[in-house]
Amino acid sequence: KPIIEIMKLCIAALSLIAGATAFTTSAPRAFNKVGFSAPITTGLQMAKQVPHGGELVDLMLDSDDAKSAAIAACTAELQLTPRQLCDIELIVNGGFSPLTGFMDQVAYESVVEKMELPDGLIFGLPVIFDTDSEDLQPGMTVLLKDGDRPIATVEFTDKFTPNKPVECLKCYGTSEIEHPGSLMVATERGRYYMGGKVTGLNTPVRDFPCKTPAEVRAGLPEDKDVVAFQCRNPVHRAHYELFTRALDDALVGEGGVVLVHPTCGPTQADDIPGVVRYKTYEVLKEETENPRTFWEYLPYSMHMAGPREAIQHMMIRKNFGCTHFIVGRDMAGSKSSITGEDYYGAYDAQDIARENAERLGVMPVPSLNLVYTEEEGYVTDTEAKEKGLGIKKLSGTKFRQMLRGGEDIPEWFAFKSVVKVLRENN
User: Nearest-CA neighbor of 153 among 165, 144, 164, 140?
Assistant: First the structure.
């Protein structure tokens, strides 16, 4: 394994030397803390949140004749990577509204440099089509497939060589290839980026159902605040306490509900597979049967971009109808694969969310730092210290060891139903 890791890093380095500039190994962090802004009293709490940009995009063709005509107009076809498949689905169904296709060079550079589209609308991370092909050229219409299934067509408008080190420095806060996002850009993405208009043909077939923003919106209450909870791991007791207690926050209106909206697409290499995560969410949904908690699934490919990704998640959940968003400590954070050091501060994502809440039209709800105590169950860390309560801890590493060893997992830490699924799929 060490040899494989070294080879990966060598390949990454070689691929980046060919770029406009080289990635560094000690790049400065690009994110700074900002102060807490006053409570926002604009129309953020309105039910049925206005889509980002004002209109929910829907690019899916609805007739077989139209789909056949779109396919017939294509002059080439390509297989989508898992990450591209996620991006295509969110472009087509409006999760990335107001985008109607992959970003061209002007839009890409605007998002990278200023975190906004050319018209000034805030947008967290670039959404691009990458390729190594010399044959693909602007003006071509290409069929995009997942196996034998036609997913979409794209009419390419431009082709350019991105400055990947700058992209990573601006978007991930570092150009170090020890960062999983930078490594992905360096070794997984193609040499060229291409912009183009997308037309939807079919929804990808997945092991977990992913409703469109319009479908999710239709199932949410029309007159209540909707608080989004993003996660990429199984939900344990502390998570559940966190997002249910978020409804008691002063920023959330009376009778608000939670939309638990996990990402089930590609994440870090050592994360639990999406289909297994989906199974844990389904059994937990049945076990808890909480009428104020809604569960849906998002076909999103994680970048581990910390603060920038917090903005991206808030924007996406806005399109799914959410008025509020729980911003966790070190949200979408990552560690160096070499030193193990965190790339972001614990509150960097919360800071950038607060700073940009009004521009986004989404109210950030800071996550509580909850701990389990023998005397009073889950309380905030501050309350436990003030009262001198006995705090019980179980590290993630120890939990995984106990899981593999067949040991009993304390119920204060994890739900029995979730543990059962994890053991069955270990």
Answer: 144
- Candidates 170, 195, 196; CA nearest to 21 is 170
Mean pLDDT value across residues 341-360: 92
- 85 and 105 in contact (C-beta within 8 Å)? no
Name residue, tokens 């501050």.
Answer: 382
Sheet holding 324-327, edge to edge: 293-295, 257-260, 226-229, 324-327, 363-366
Q: How far apart are CA 160 and CA 58, in angstroms?
A: 27
> Nearest Cα to 307, choosing from 172, 202, 130, 211?
172
User: Helix axis angle, 396-405 relative to 416-424, nearest 10°?
Assistant: 60
Asked if pLDDT for residue 36 goes beyond 80, the answer is no
Task: Determine the angle formed by the axes of helices 164-172 and 180-187, rounding to 10 degrees.
Answer: 160
Percent of the chain with pLDDT over 90: 72
φ, ψ (nearest 5 deg) of residue 279: -65, -40
What are the beta bridge partners of residue 353? none
